[in-house]
Write a structure and sequence with these properties.
The chain is an alpha/beta fold and 337 residues long. The protein contains 11 helices and 5 strands, in the order αβαβαβαβαβαααααα. It is an enzyme of class 2 (transferase).
Length: 337
């Protein structure tokens, strides 16, 4: 069951008031669903500065305290970890840096809070290191994991968190997702299991991704040009060089995020086939039911699970230094061929 951000906050607030707050929450949902805003509200709640306000103003209106951006809450007892590497992975060293201050003793009335944004970007080594903290959390420690892709997390991590899936946000169909789903529905009409189908899906995937790269690169170049015109005469050339590197990294990060979202679409589509196969509901793409049913009728469940694993293996290989187009071709042949 998914919740609105307000409902999810109320559930956490009620548990906190009863002294039964869990030590770890997994807050998931599409981009724009309010994961970071909810996280900020929870931090304010446990550390005595709840965002609900209190009392009334001179005109009898309730006072509401604004919730600041999540990063503004970082401090001695609140630590926020985001992907920092060019590959947008969270390394094991970053996990250890997050964990060290959690071992300290916080002042009376304060909680030590560790936030892992884009938690699905933890590699296997980082996930295993974080799992140790989940299993034996220090006293008065709250761990908040944020992700748009919870299925990419280790099952052992999922099992140790209270899950708060959020409604809303940018759906899977946005930003090329619907185009990819339409292609999946069409080219799989004759079934999976042949190279033509696999390479057709790969071609659509790559085309959408290339459009996203062009858009991100153009935006980065425009931003850099604007800064050069504004600051070229009043700053050192070294600063502009650093800004150029910053914008290139930002464009690459946006590209990798777009690639991750398209993989989310592929994973959700294959998962829908499995749901249809098992008679479960809750489809991500209910409009695709006729196409999904055709594939489900033709594919054994074991083979579908193998295809899902092949897709996740491809996703992991792209997080290494694998040559992208070659990895995509091989991976799509294994998944859909």
């Amino acid at each position: 069951m998914a919740y609105t951000a307000d409902h999810a906050y109320q559930l956490v607030e009620a548990a906190h008031e009863r002294g039964r707050l869990a030590h770890a929450f997994l807050i998931s949902g599409a981009r724009g669903s309010g994961k970071e805003a909810l996280t900020a509200r929870i931090i304010q709640l446990v550390n005595g500065s709840g965002a609900q306000g209190g009392g009334f103003d001179l005109f009898g209106e309730p006072v509401v305290v604004e919730t600041p951006p999540l990063d503004d809450l970082e401090g001695p007892w609140v630590h926020i970890l985001r992907p920092r590497m060019k590959s947008r992975r969270i390394a094991v060293d970053a996990i250890r840096d997050l964990e060290r201050p959690l071992r300290l003793t916080a002042p009376e009335g304060k909680w030590k809070v560790g936030v892992v944004a884009e938690a699905d970007r933890m590699g296997v080594e980082a996930s295993n290191a974080f799992l140790k903290t989940l299993e034996e959390p220090p006293a008065r420690t709250l761990l908040l994991l944020l992700t748009s892709n919870p299925q990419a997390l280790l099952p052992t991590i999922l099992s140790r968190c209270v899950r708060l899936p959020l409604l809303g946000g940018v759906g899977l169909e946005a930003e090329g997702g619907q185009e990819l789903v339409t292609s999946l529905d069409k080219v799989t009409a004759s079934g999976l299991g042949n190279p033509r189908v696999a390479l057709s899906i790969k071609a659509v995937f790559s085309s959408i991704l290339e459009q996203r790269r062009d858009t991100a690169t153009a935006a980065a170049e425009a931003a850099l040009k604007e800064e050069e015109q504004a600051y070229k005469q009043v700053t050192e050339g070294d600063w502009l060089k650093r800004r150029e590197e910053f914008h290139k990294a930002a464009a690459e990060s946006e590209y990798l995020e777009a690639r991750g979202r398209l993989f989310d679409v592929l994973t959700a589509w294959v998962a829908d086939v499995l749901r249809v196969k098992s008679g479960a509901g809750g489809l991500d793409f209910p409009d695709s039911l006729p196409a999904l049913r055709k594939v489900a009728d033709a594919e054994p469940e074991g083979r579908l699970l193998q295809r899902m694993e092949a897709l996740e293996s491809l996703r992991r290989s792209l997080d290494t230094n694998a040559q992208e187009q070659l990895a995509l071709e091989v991976g799509f042949l294994r998944t859909f061929g």
